[in-house]
Structure to design on (212 residues):
């Protein structure tokens, strides 16, 4: 998702108290930043933030960090949040390639990837968020028994993501090729913006939950 450049987006983000502005300085200090010892869960590539906002609202005992690369997209999440700020939800504008600069070893309890960009060309495989290169980064920040949950409507990306698991030292805890028809996996499912759009068009949604 890349919205048209929105004039002033960077200024709004720079002034927002909902955004962590020097995220490298937060590394190892997330408990202090949230002011409690609750688990920290992150969504990488959160888009306009519907999913993470709903999760944070429903789970006040968990801290959430939404990560988004583009200012124009993050701005939309902030506009939604400003009407209803939550003490357990913060945002970072960054490229997830640098995620190990922001979270220390075992500082994250769960990682969500939702409808990640497919990067269909082979030469761009390393940019895919469920690639082995990214899994190696997640390995550095996720708790020992932590999990990663990935949803997509893109069959090729899902096949790729499954093939990346073994070489990266991860394994599937649960897999579905049709989330909305899977009673166990869909229990408590929170829909993302893309999920609403694609599933209303009849596309099946693929999901895995993985761990090392
Ligand atoms: N997760 C949302 C949903 O399901 O509705 C948005 C999905 S959209 C297809 C993918 C989002 O991931 C875009 O907003 C994009 O800017 C963001 N993104 C892609 N690569 C990223 C990266 N390396 N770091 C941070 N965000 C990224």
């Amino acid at each position: 998702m890349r919205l048209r450049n929105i004039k002033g987006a960077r200024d709004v983000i720079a002034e927002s108290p909902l955004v962590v502005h020097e995220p490298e300085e937060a590394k190892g200090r997330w408990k202090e930043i949230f002011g409690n010892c609750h688990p920290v869960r992150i969504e990488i590539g959160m888009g306009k933030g519907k999913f993470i906002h709903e999760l944070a609202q429903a789970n006040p005992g968990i801290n959430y960090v939404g990560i988004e690369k583009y200012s124009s997209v993050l701005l939309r999440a902030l506009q939604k949040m400003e009407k209803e700020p939550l003490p357990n939800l913060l945002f970072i504008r960054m490229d997830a390639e640098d995620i190990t600069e922001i979270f220390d070893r075992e500082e994250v309890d769960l990682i969500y990837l939702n409808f990640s960009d497919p990067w269909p060309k082979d030469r761009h495989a390393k940019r895919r968020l469920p690639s082995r290169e990214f899994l190696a980064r997640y390995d550095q920040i996720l708790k020992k028994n932590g999990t990663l949950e990935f949803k997509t409507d893109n069959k090729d990306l899902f096949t790729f993501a499954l093939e990346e698991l073994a070489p990266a030292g991860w394994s599937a805890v649960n897999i579905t090729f049709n989330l909305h028809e899977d009673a166990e996996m869909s229990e408590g499912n929170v829909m993302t913006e893309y999920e609403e759009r694609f599933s209303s068009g009849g596309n099946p949604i693929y999901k895995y939950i993985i761990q090392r």
